[in-house]
Design a protein that fits this description.
2 copies of one chain form a homodimer. Chain A is globular. In chain A, helix 3 (about 55-70) packs parallel to helix 4. Chain A is built from 7 helices and 5 strands; from the N terminus they run H-E-E-H-H-E-H-E-H-H-E-H. Chain A is α+β, with helices and mostly antiparallel strands and about 160 residues long. The interface between A and B is large, with 92 and 92 residues. Strand 4 (about 100-105) of chain A pairs parallel with strand 5 of chain B, so a sheet runs across the interface.
């Protein structure tokens, strides 16, 4: 993708972040999913306006892009985000199998205005011994059995 | 919470994981959000049936719990999951501010049946120098300006 297109799509993500912050929809974050040089979906933070802690700009854009394309993966896509994705959004992008992620502000910039992306990244390295929630492993023969049933399921749709 | 209640809620998450796997809704994963000893919401993996790569059991349960409670945080809640949350789901739980996470199968168990939780955890430690997608930082004065506007916004709803 040419640098000019990157600049164009980044301008759009930043415009979304400002517009929806000003409208009171949530935090100052925008995202755009692009495939073959075309915008497939746009997203913006809607956590506080929809009471959904997972409604970060990138998650919203990824969900909308998959709906638009009618499939659960985004191979070949670029995810533009006005800020470095938090661990939730980065893992969502990896599950969606995007090829490329381009972002403007960093997790440190997010920390400076009160967002927890940076400590959450630290928690990821500590997991399952995380400190921001009590985390308990209860080994379960029944849960293990279900995994065995999945492995043996002849008609499963892998993802 | 008493061990007996933990066992009861874990049994329910495992039952959900089996039931919805068998129904073809997605992977073998279930989750339950409990507040004050009561089930607030249940979730199960729906990635392949809804074309939503973010529709993991825990994300679905968290979203439903927030909808049920009419707020964007789950302080005081326990999240039960049939499997150790992947980085997306763990960060979603942290953003939701759950108090406690209890799980059965581990990320290694998930790896053994073909799921990418373990390598995605490795990516989290490497980010932003991740290897499973091309990640590019494009510093943006405009994006930085929006963050400044958020910091100065008098009527923002923090989360």
């Amino acid at each position: 993708m040419s640098p000019d297109l990157d600049a164009l799509f980044m301008d759009r993500t930043v415009a979304l972040s400002r517009e929806h912050m000003q409208a009171g929809h949530g935090g100052p974050f925008g995202a755009v999913v692009v495939m073959d040089g075309q915008v497939v979906a746009e997203g913006w933070n809607q956590v506080t306006s929809t009471n959904d802690p997972t409604a970060h700009a990138e998650v919203v854009a990824i969900r909308r892009a998959c709906t638009a394309l009618g499939r659960f993966d985004l191979r070949g896509a670029t995810l533009y985000s006005s800020c470095e994705p938090c661990p939730m959004c980065l893992a969502a992008a990896l599950w969606a199998r995007v090829d490329r992620i381009v972002y403007g502000n960093t997790r440190q910039d997010a920390a400076a205005i009160g967002f927890d992306d940076a400590p959450f990244y630290a928690e990821m390295s500590r997991a399952p011994a995380i400190t921001m929630a009590q985390m308990e492993h209860r080994p379960s023969a029944a849960a293990a059995s279900v995994f065995g049933e999945w492995a043996a399921k002849p008609d499963k749709v892998a993802y």
